[in-house]
Structures are given as structure tokens and as C-alpha cells.
Predict the structure.
Amino acid sequence: MNYFLFTLVFVFLISGTALAYSPIVSEVKRPYDIISLEEKPEAKQEYLGELLDYPVMYEITSEESFTLKAEVSQLYVSGSLPVPFSLIMVRKNDRGGGVTEVARLKADDVNWVTKKDPVLGLNFWYGESLSREVEAGTYRIEISTVDNSGKYLITFGQEEQSVGYLQMLSNIRNTQKFFGFSVFKMLMSSYVYYMLGVILLVFVIYQTWRNRKLLAHVK
């Protein structure tokens, strides 16, 4: 019976899937380096980043028209105002170099809303999304503030994908660590406490079955 319980839980852990949350830490080695998005334009992609005295720019290329969408969120800190992030979208000109502005979201126009993310177990400020229908081409999205400082989570695209349960746990931990939380914060994630609840339920069922079996044997 013990072997069966262990196998049941183990198989559930490694075979279960969840909606993808696979953030990538934005690594900028030099000021104004451009970060190329790894997935197709429609796919939902999250990037963790920090402004360190200069803006951060992301680039995406598509051979077909698509919806260019970006949304910024940031950790909620009690008693503090949200960092005033701004976004600007530009398109690389096909000829002659240079870029053409597509859309802009100024810091003063953003209405930040607080909401808890049950998966991450963290409270965030969520800004408004900036979205445009665009033609094929190469586009860049720049995030900045007046003094170019502050940590953020920027999300591109909208099509959800799936990842394995264990990979999801790793992604959650990486995000919590990025924002300065210890491993114990994992207990606040719905993906953890739901699983602990399942394990506890299985244990209770097993103990009930075991006790009934012992009582039946005594009689």
C-alpha cells in the first residue's frame, strides 16, 4: 500500500500539466542591448527584468501580420506607490534604417490595479496592456521610467501554453527568488498548497483504511 501511494503521488507530479508560466530573466550585458523574444509572436511570453539606469528593449519579428501586445506588472509593496513604467512600440523601417513609432503608453496614463496572483503567491500591481494590430516586420518594445530604475514583469502575446508540473514549480520559485523571497514563500503558491492538500487527503484515506483493517483483524 505504501508503494502504491508513493507511485500515485509521483506519477501525478511528473505527468500533470499546467498553463505555462515560464518567465525568462532579461539579461542585458551592455546598455541598450536588444533582447530577442524566443517564441512566436502570438505565444504568451513573460520576461523578468530590472532597469539599471537605462531602458530595456525587446524585439520580435514576424513574417505575418499579428497582434503586438505588451503588459507590465510589478511587485506590490505595502505603503509604496507603483513604479511609473512607460512603454513604447516601434517598427524597424524596411529601408533606410531607423524606426517608426507604433504606439506609446505614458506613465501618467497607466491606471495600476493591485491583485494577488495565486499561482505565484504574490501581490502585484498590474498596468494596462498596450496592443496594436500590425503588419509583418520587426518590432521593438521599450520599457523605461524617468530615472530608469525598478524591477518588473513584462508579458507579451496572449496564447497560453502548457508545461509540466515540476517545471511550473521551478518557474514559480525562480520568480519569487527574483523578487527577493525565500523558498518558504513557495507555501503560498496554489500549486503547492493544493498539492499538499491532495497528499494529506490521500494520507487520511490510507490511515482510515489501515485502521479499519487492523480493527477487522482484531475482531
The chain has a mean pLDDT of 86.
